[in-house]
Amino acid sequence: MNWRKFLLNNGMHLSFAVALVATMGSLYLSEVLRYEPCKLCWIQRIFMYPLVILFAVASIKKDQRVYSYALPLAIGGGLFSIYHYMVQKAPFLQKSTDSCGLVPCNTDALDWFGFITIPFLALIAFVMITVLQLLIRKALQSGE
Questions:
Q1: DSSP letters of the chain?
Q2: Whole-model pTM?
Q3: Are residues 121 and 17 in contact, defined by beta-carbon separation less than 8 angstroms?
């Protein structure tokens, strides 16, 4: 099986799975573990949550061109994730967000190995979705 056929058969389902895991993970952190999301976390959720619905509908309808409206959400969310991660890790940005809301954006309840934080996990999900959607777009264009 070549890469093009694999992506066209599975890319949408993989994108859906990534978005679903990211959404369920964020809900688990806030609703089960009771981590209160900061303002930047909410913004990233605004970009991620609709992707679950978009990919579910696109999978059912077999709409391979969902990338045209999924990519702006994935790229936008990824940019906010990068900014949020930098706020947590770059000292020159940390002081500017001490008062970004009830929950400061420069702290993170989750910090594995000194670099894996909640915004980092969100960034990985946004990057995976972006790459999958770009590859699907390329596969569709090379088949025309």
A1: --HHHHHHHHHHHHHHHHHHHHHHHHHIIIIIS-PPP-HHHHHHHHHHHHHHHHHHHHHHHT-GGGHHHHHHHHHHHHHHHHHHHHHHH-HHHHGGGTTSSSS-TT--S-EETTTEEHHHHHHHHHHHHHHHHHHHHHHHHHH-
A2: 0.84
A3: no
Name which of 16, 126, 6, 1 is nearest 60 in CA terms: 16
Residue 125 CB: number of other CB atoms within 10 A?
25
Bridge partners, 117 (sequence order):
111
Please state, in angstroms and rounded to a whole number, the distance separating the CA atoms of residues 29 and 36: 8
pLDDT per residue as tens digits for the range 64-77: 888 889 999 999 99
User: pLDDT (tens digit, 9 = 90+) per residue, 93-118?
Assistant: 666 655 566 666 667 776 756 667 88
Give Cα separations from 41 to 23, 26, 118, 120, 136 (angstroms).
Answer: 12, 9, 8, 11, 28
Q: What is the CA radius of gyration of the chain?
A: 17
